Amino acid sequence: MEDTKINFKGQSIYIGLDVHLKSWKVCFRLDEFEHGVHTMPPSPKALSNYLRKYFPNGDYYSVYEAGYCGYWIHEELESYGIQNTIVNPLDVPTKDKEKRVKTDRIDCRKLARHLRNGELDTIFIRDKEQQQDRSLVRMRYTLVKKQTICKNQIKSLLAFYGIQIEEEKIQSHWSKNFIKWIDESTKQMGSATLTFEILLNELKDIRELVSTVTKQIRVLSDTDRYNVIVKLLRSIPGISVLSAMTIITEIGDIKNFDNLDKLNGYIGLIPNEHSSGEKEIKTRMTHRGNKILKNILVECSWMAVRKDPSLILAYKNYIKKHKSTKAIIKITRKLVSRIRFVLINQQEYKLSVV
Prior knowledge:
Blueprint: E1 12-19, E2 24-29, E3 34-40, H1 44-54, E4 59-65, H2 72-79, E5 83-87, H3 96-100, H4 104-117, H5 128-160, H6 167-171, H7 176-185, H8 192-221, H9 227-234, H10 241-251, H11 260-267, E6 271-276, E7 279-285, H12 291-304, H13 309-318, H14 324-345
Parallel strand pairs: 1-4, 4-5
Antiparallel strand pairs: 1-2, 2-3, 6-7
Helix pairs in contact: 5-8, 5-10, 9-10, 10-12, 12-14, 13-14
């Protein structure tokens, strides 16, 4: 009797996923043609069951765009034997008509097609512990931003009511005495007193949270996973423990970047470029990149130009031709070069090295 059981052994099944919270649009594609687009529950297990029912024993390859869902979908797909990749949405080749008409169906078909053709650049996927550590470091960054917003709200409200901050108070900005002065200065302001009380209490709560997270990050920096790398990075002028932890958790393995240009591109320290024929036009910095890492590195650069003689000299030369904002970006690129050198060679930075 002839065996009529379906068997896709040796055949590749390419799956483009457009993932959402309540459902997924899934495109299935074989080497020669597209099988179809289906709406499925947001579950790697459901996808795995479907594949084993309709494409048994096949080689499964899937892809989805990086977004809100992080890496958990990737991890579960891999556990079910589906070789998955994650891509940056901005790096997915898109036809003009796909730009003009954007739907979940079009997106998943596009992903499946490019996966089949080998046209996708995948992103680096961190392990669970790296993800958790990065979340902790990013939380401090978020809290500090909230703290700054709260301080600005208080200062704006003081200005609105004509309460001048004395010169000696400016020198001790946001100390306990300064906050106490604000509290006392706004006691007799009717209903606005409550507004100041709420803002000051919010500031106090955020500061406590910042302190708690900062202590935990310092503890983390002393663990076997990080202490050696933190020490190496701290040998570079301008880099503290906290900035070192941000650099480590955001960059991950420095070997994922083949050269300095790719690292600068990931950070967002390269200009946009428009070239045609013999014309080459470079505009302002690209909006792509890791904004958290970029901001931290620029802050480190401002510190570095006060401590590193070679960077002081370089900065002075740059500001002869450029504004300070452009000059500091050039310094930041030099700083990134030093960071890469230190991490690749696993040796401390020496001030004599330019």
